[in-house]
């Protein structure tokens, strides 16, 4: 899809020439596209780009994959194979081309309904970062949506949640929730129809299927028969918040333009799942959002797992524009309702009478600093040189450039107080 325009900044000021680069791949190793904003591109270079793009198209279109899937499920179990090297369902006539590859045999219907467990996760932190929701988190979200009366879930980069909804819908007659998956991973087109999956880049709001795919999304967002919609997104944590926010606002606008009464002064209900240390950045773009204490955990991430304690707890939270008191968190996991804040908080998040808020972000009990006039992490101490709280062994050296993580001046990325390990 379209590239994004970038510029290097120092203390909030632009430095150097502006340039275009890939919207999805922040690492040049994954996509080496680069072009200065004022650069004139030769016909030869444009032709070379076109040739490169043609040579890197998927083997099959989405529609072809749907037909292949229909043929695949008709095969007896003994003839159902999946090539692990090509990440592709194989029909018998294709076996010979994959003889030297590793493949799985006897692919069951249950496996086909759980493609996120069949496919290898793409774990590039800045592009795909397919850290898949643990079953606990999926079950929690699904129960919450049901209790809140939502009947349609726009799943943006949340394949595990989407497949759980699809599976339940096919097995339980009284299950009324539907889901549409928007994801940059085209491999999912092998398992879902064009009404269930759209190939989508959340960094530039690009539908690879063109206007037809955009119309599929638009129809899904139309709240027919009072079927309320909620958007759930779990972007790569290394992605640019500004680019993501721009795309999400466009999806919200699409929802508003469906023309339903009462949309004029409302936002589409949304769950943005992201680490807590990006709170200020998200609130910059969505002031109506608030952060919930619920710790989202992942199956294939060594650190972001439920049940860990102290600094080893998952830093991933839910940011939402729903009223906080509506988000009921599981009491059996230690969450409790704060009557003053009117929201559920973690067991270690004690209400600070001075701040008049439950201030902890990471699950530990924070302490109030009178000099900073706010609560800080328990491992921080007030530094008179820096005139703020920080780790006891921090460096007091001031840096001229803004921090890469939080954008604030006065420290480097390695010493950023917003990092989860500090």
UniProtKB/TrEMBL annotation:
Domain named CCHC-type: residues: 403-418
Broad class of the protein's primary localization: cytoplasm
Domain of life: Eukaryota
Annotated keywords: Cytoplasm, Metal-binding, Methyltransferase, S-adenosyl-L-methionine, Transferase, Zinc, Zinc-finger
InterPro entries named among the record's database cross-references: Mlase_EEF1AKMT1/ZCCHC4, ZCCHC4, Znf_CCHC, Znf_GRF
Molecular function per GO: nucleic acid binding; rRNA (adenine-N6-)-methyltransferase activity; zinc ion binding
Assigned GO CC terms: cytoplasm; nucleolus
Alphabetized PROSITE patterns for the sequence: DHHC, ZF_CCHC, ZF_GRF
SMART domains reported for this sequence: ZnF_C2HC
Cell location: Cytoplasm
Domain GRF-type residues, every copy: 1-40
Protein name, UniProt field: ZCHC4 protein
Organism: Calyptomena viridis (Lesser green broadbill)
The organism's taxonomic lineage, starting at the top: Eukaryota, Metazoa, Chordata, Craniata, Vertebrata
